[in-house]
Structure formats: structure tokens, C-alpha cells
Amino acid sequence: VKGSYDNFMQKEIYEQPETTGNVMRGRIDVSTNRVILGGLEHWMFELRRARRIIMIACRASYHACLATRAIFEELIEIPIGVELASDFIDRNCCIFRDDVCIFVSQSGETSDTICALNYCLKKEAITVGVVNTTGSSISRFTHCGVHINAGPEKGATSTKCYTSQYIALVMIALCLSEDKVSQVERRKEIIQGLILIPKQIEEVFRLESTIIDLCDNELRDQESVLVLGRGFQFASALEGALKMKEISYVHSEGLLAGEPKHGVSDLVDEALSIIAFATKDSLFPKVVSSIERIIARKGNPIIICNKGDKIWEQKKLQKNFVTLEVPQTVNCLQGVLNIIPLQLISYWLAVKRGADLDSPIEPAKTSTAQ
Ligand code: UD1
Ligand code: NA
Question: Dihedrals φ, ψ of 275, to 5°?
Fold first, then answer.
């Protein structure tokens, strides 16, 4: 039931304070700073022995893997691969018995991901599922796994499942690194950060009126929107651009901020829309200089930044642009909050452009269910 909402996508965006709480429920012990995943309990020995972890998924689920790759690398200190399921199958990748392969899928029925799972099972790797649907193929065929408990996702694109997959993956990284003494403080910081996420998502919703206004004006007739992010926010840029394409039918690309310097800046002018993630982390100075270049070229960026960050006030004296302020969290969790404004922008842009949100043109969710 959609309840008081206009369609499933809107309902699912607004469910996120609850669903991000559900994925953590009963799985975090605040007093001991421990994450307990019942679904992995009996496999801990095998999982911690892994020489390599490979995450395999499609579409938004793939972006959740990209978003959490760095925290796996940092906490577990082994090579972490992220693969698009279809490309993984095409390449007949080398998979070994001491590999741990994690399959992420909302429905648990994504055909390419199941195909990759079967391949890894044949190679005798240890397989882990991160799925929303209990009893689904991926849930059954994997050795072990974590249900994200987000409830049915019926909207035209993934919203609440993206944020819950993200959190589930961070919790897996926390679980697998529990034996690492050097990571005690860092793990504690992340666990404390996780607990605040549901409340912080509610704060992000306060941006909605500004976002509706953006979709009525600056963004309304745009043919193309570039979304820029770097480090932890590169995945947010890709996922944000995917939302725009799937829902608003606007051409959109997610790009690594600062990387294709010439390519992108050649495209920049007053008309091209650019959304840039510029929340505070170690890459912040680099992101700021990319944005400065865009402004110098008369670009008109919409900036997603942290609350109370003074730097933008000075830059606005030079040229006015819109900032969307989100609360700050631990760097590896910031993407959970940062994606919410993009979900809302793609939603409201779709509404303003008259898209039918309950039956998008592309039957994305049924043929290649995530
Ligand atoms: C489980 C129960 C939950 C109960 C809780 C109480 C289920 C589905 N979950 O949750 O209702 O409240 O215990 O302790 O009955 N699995 C896979 N692949 C996947 C996902 C899961 O093999 O992709 C397996 C897990 O390894 C586990 C089982 O499915 O054996 C349930 O997983 P999950 O629901 O995540 O476990 P709990 O959180 O312990
Ligand atoms: Na299973």
C-alpha cells in the first residue's frame, strides 16, 4: 500500500529512517561496540581466512559495493574486487577456493548475479549473499549471508534498498575485522556513526522544499546533468546519475571529480547542470579545486556539502550557486546521507516533467531485477 504517498518511490524514499534502522536492528551491541550478523556467525572462520573478497552485483547494488569497497580495504587489509555481474561472467574470471564472493541483489533473483554465483559455486569459493528477499535464489544458493530487511521495494528505482545494502556491507566489513586490534578505535567510530544515521536521514528530508524549487527552475529543462564525486563519493556520483537516468529521463553521467580535467571542463558552460558532492573528508581540498575550475568557467554547480561549512559562503560572493547541506557523519558512511538529495532531485524532476512514476518506460525492475 502506498498509504498517504503519491507513489511507491516517494514512499520508499521516506521510509529510509525506518529501513536503515531495520537493517541494524538486533545486530549492533552498542555497549561492546560489536556487530553481530546471525547469518554469518557459523562462517566466520572461513570468511576471515579469505585471501581476497570480490563483490558482484548489477546497477544500484553494484554502486553499493563500490561505495563500501574502501572501508573493506581499510578494515580488512586484503584485496577487494568489485565486479559488474555481466562483465564478470563475460570474462570467465579466475576464482579460487580461498576467495570470498559477495553477491548483492535486492530481489535475490537478478539473472546475471545468479549466473555469477553459480560460476563461483563451481569454483568452490565461499559465497555470501546480501539480499532483501528471503527465500530468493541468491539467499538460498549462497553459503551464508545477510538479509537487509527493508521490506518490499516496488518503486521504479532502488532507493531504500541502496542505503540498506550500503549499511549491511559496512556491517560485514566491521564483523570481518573484529579480530584486528589496530582497528578498534576506527570500528568504534563507525559503529557510533551508524547508530545516528536514521535520525540524520530525517534531517536531510528538510531539504525537500529547496529541491522542489530547483526542479521547478534550474533543473527543469536540462537535457544533461553531470554528477561529480571523488573517493567515497564517486559511488554516490554514479548512483545519483543512475537515479536521474532511470526516473527523470535526463541524460546524466557520474564522473570522478578532478579526474577528466580537460574533458569535463570543456563541456562546462552556464547552461550545463552540474551536481557536485563536496562533503568533508580527506579529498575535500581536491574536490574544492575542481569546483573552483567549474565556477571559473561560468559553470553553475549545485553543491552537496556539510552543514555549516563556511567555505561556500565566500565562493558565493564570486558567483551565486545552490548548496544543499547535509549533516556530517563518518567518512565511510557519508554516502548514505549524500544520496538522499539525489533521490529527491530525481524524484521531483520526474514529477515536474510528468513521468509516470509507478510504471516507468523501462520495465527495469522486472526483467533485470536488482
Ligand atoms: C534470523 C531470522 C530473523 C530472526 C533472527 C533472530 C530469517 C530469514 N531471519 O535473522 O527472522 O529475527 O534470526 O535471531 O529467518 N542467508 C544466506 N544468503 C543470503 C542471506 C541470508 O544464506 O543472501 C542465510 C544466513 O546465512 C542465515 C539465514 O539465511 O542462515 C538468515 O539470514 P538473516 O535473516 O540475515 O539472519 P539473522 O539476522 O540472524
Ligand atoms: Na543460503
Answer: -115, 130
